[in-house]
Amino acid sequence: MSSIIFRCLLLFAFTALTAIKAEADGPDSQSTLYMIGMENLIPDARPWFIGDNYALVLKDDISPGVVHKAVLPEQPGDYYIMHVRSPDDLKPIEDRVPYFMIGDNAIFRTDPEGASILPKYGWGLTKLGPLPEYQKIAPVPVPPVIAEYDPDIADMISEITPQSCESRLTDITAFPTRYSYSAFCRDAEEYVYNLFNSYGLTTSYFDFNWNGTDMRNVVGQLTGTTRPDSVIIICGHLDCFSEDAYNNAPGAEDNGSGTVSVLEAARILSQRQTDLTIRFITFSGEEQGLIGSDYYAQHMVDIGEDIGAVINLDMVAYRGPYPSDMHFYSDPQSHWLGELATVTMDDYTAVDTISHYENSPQWGSDHYSFAIRGYPAVFLIDAEPWVGEDWHPYYHTTDDIMDHLDMDLQADVARTGTALAAVLARVDFGAQEIPIISEWGMLILALLLLAFGTIAVISRGRRVLRKTN
Ligand SMILES: [Zn+2]
User: Fold this and answer.
1) How far does the centroid of ligand 1 lie from the alpha carbon of residue 236, in Å?
2) Tens of pLDDT along 103-122?
3) Fewer CB within 10 A of the terminal residue: the chain, N end or C end?
4) Rounded distance from Cα 291 to ligand 1 centre (Å)
5) Is the pLDDT of residue 63 over 50?
6) What is the percent of the chain with per-residue pLDDT over 70, rounded to a whole number?
7) How far does residue 299's CA lie from ligand 1's centre (Å)?
8) Ligand 1 ion: residues within 5 Å (CB)
9) The pLDDT of residue 5
10) CATH of domain 134-425
11) Could you tell me the CA-to-CA distances from 332 to 75, 235, 439 in Å, in that order?
12) Distance 365 CA to ligand 1 centre (A)
């Protein structure tokens, strides 16, 4: 057989196989995860978690002969990760929800009902999903974003004050609880919906059902004037948790503070025009494993939404013993965004900032749901998750009240989020896109090469025939 035809067929087979494999490894996959050494991670693998020297992967991503260990093989359900202070804390539930410890984190494999009991026993519950392949590739180049001080933006965000934030946070924490399984959370969702509506935003609920309860993300949209199909998201979760979650969960820091930042950004930006569309979103079901954002981000993938950047704010108004540090987390495709967010806070506020440029998305909050699906996303938080004296001491307790928070810091974070969204809503994200041949493109190319190959063989055969004649 002519080598060109052979190559075409190979290319064809490879394209078809890649398409099938991509489907099998989708985000709903319930297959067993295995732990392998980082040195054995193949370049096109889609790991579900990357640790210091190990990765969790599906069987398909393990090369023959590589040592691997199953993570909770016999358990049906989704995989979750959660930070625990000591494995002893999990003793009361280990029969119901078995776990696998990796450092200070527990990995679970359970159903939504099993997951519902977990927040009481640890921190940052996150439903895991496959990371994009890019995690093994160099960081994405910086898009043309101008991070210069703009007096117009400074002027605009000066409308956000500690008083305006305090008044909004008073409303948010006035609900007895915003636990996702409680009807009071539906009331809080309605409060946000009405507020977005009063600002003239195109407002909607994004409904989902989790473990038998109807929950709602609230979406307020400011439609862009010149590139409306390109979307910037600024978000935070509205729901919260405590040891008495059904009756008393004020959730001032976690996450009234992020919610207020989103609502203040909506109040200010809704009175302006922006090139790109900005979506203000409050998520529910975050404390159950980032469920609301998981559904929403997957929907964005399904409808092919063009999302330029996601700004997630979660726990942003507690001033610990260290002076006013804010932390910015980003993964390789989002390092440019992490840098832009940090510079924005430096430009417009006096708060000290720390950037964390990670090699995979920080788990534990809603930006994760977007980042694992390939959308650039930055996470703003006032402490390093779970560690140190800066970490909010009243996290997930009935004592997470406004009195422990600093409204100056709250206002500075809300200003930063608003300024960042305004800057991003000017960016032409399409301008630097590198053309990539899609799978359909590969198929068409393969067929074209096959056709040319056939023609070449036939004409060569004819020439040979002519010569013999
Ligand atoms: Zn939170």
Assistant:
1) 8
2) 899 999 999 999 999 999 99
3) C
4) 12
5) yes
6) 83
7) 22
8) 254-255, 314
9) 47
10) 3.40.630.10
11) 32, 20, 24
12) 6
